[in-house]
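Regression test case RT-17, inverse folding.

Input:
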């Protein structure tokens, strides 16, 4: 018997290639993770078909590809897009009122098509849909939270935000409730690290540790591999040369979106205070900024930050 998998990834922008990573808070590492996961899964001999369900978006502000109902990824993998909510692109916190519509559409779809053997829900919104769909179809549910509402709430409170502000911005109570239900119903809970399982998921009353399976994210060996030629290193050297005094030192590399919760200022401060790190390594921060997606205040903050960073670099030189 060969298995059919259904993956639910509902927010952000996802397509078969040219992911717009960093475009916004919803199109980041989870998007890359899910796409590479479904591709890898399809290469297993026991797997027949992998479907990735996401939201259909018909909005002039995003690419037309996100309005295709079905998209071929590679043999055995396809993206299925379902309309729920308005046509325009919405951040994930605004999707909650429309998730029941998606659930009904999926139930109707699988009344006419072969049902999956497993449902894998990614993040709280997909968990909400996954719980209802798995019960209707009577198939096992796998849940990966990726990030968790209780932990986010704790960190936001630490920044000084009030409960009502957090609720208005992030619909945090709906998210936590959906996570509790997903953890209760899931047959398997996938975590990336033991720390995530022991210290984060354990904050939930519905979490049972025996369900947790620690599966570290994999690596795409087509992109990350031993050096095949001097051309690869030459390209990197030419890219970095204008910014570095000594490009022969090994890099201390970080790649992230330019948002506060990535804690980049602390990394820069820690590096700047360590004579050993400065002597032996180059700190390289790779960041993608889509300025048109930033508010005026955030744009102003980022420009100030860049000026400070440039001043530090010039002073060091």
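Golden output:
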């Amino acid at each position: 018997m060969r298995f059919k998998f259904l993956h639910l990834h509902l927010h952000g922008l996802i397509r078969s290639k040219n992911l717009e990573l960093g475009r916004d808070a919803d199109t980041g590492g989870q998007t890359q993770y899910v796409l590479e996961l479904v591709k890898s899964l399809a290469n297993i001999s026991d797997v027949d078909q992998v479907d990735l369900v996401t939201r259909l978006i018909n909005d002039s502000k995003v690419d037309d590809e996100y309005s295709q109902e079905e998209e071929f990824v590679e043999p055995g993998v396809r993206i299925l897009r379902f309309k729920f909510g308005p046509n325009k692109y919405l951040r994930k916190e605004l999707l909650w009122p429309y998730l029941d519509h998606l659930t009904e559409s999926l139930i109707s779809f699988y009344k006419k098509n072969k049902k999956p053997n497993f449902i894998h829900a990614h993040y709280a919104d997909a968990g909400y849909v996954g719980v209802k769909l798995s019960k209707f179809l009577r198939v096992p549910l796998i849940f990966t939270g990726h990030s968790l509402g209780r932990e986010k709430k704790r960190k936001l409170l630490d920044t000084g935000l009030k409960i009502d502000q957090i609720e208005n911005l992030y619909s945090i109570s709906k998210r936590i409730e959906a996570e509790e239900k997903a953890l209760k119903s899931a047959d398997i809970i996938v975590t990336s690290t033991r720390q995530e399982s022991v210290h984060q998921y354990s904050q939930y009353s519905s979490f049972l540790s025996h369900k947790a399976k620690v599966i570290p994210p994999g690596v795409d060996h087509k992109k990350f591999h031993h050096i095949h030629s001097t051309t690869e290193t030459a390209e990197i050297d030419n890219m970095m040369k204008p910014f570095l005094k000594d490009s022969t030192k090994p890099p201390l590399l970080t790649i992230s979106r330019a948002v506060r919760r990535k804690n980049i200022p602390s990394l820069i401060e820690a590096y700047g205070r360590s004579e050993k790190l400065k002597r032996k390594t180059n700190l390289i921060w790779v960041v993608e900024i889509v300025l048109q997606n930033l508010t005026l205040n955030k744009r102003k903050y980022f420009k100030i930050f860049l000026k400070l960073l440039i001043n530090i670099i010039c002073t060091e030189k």
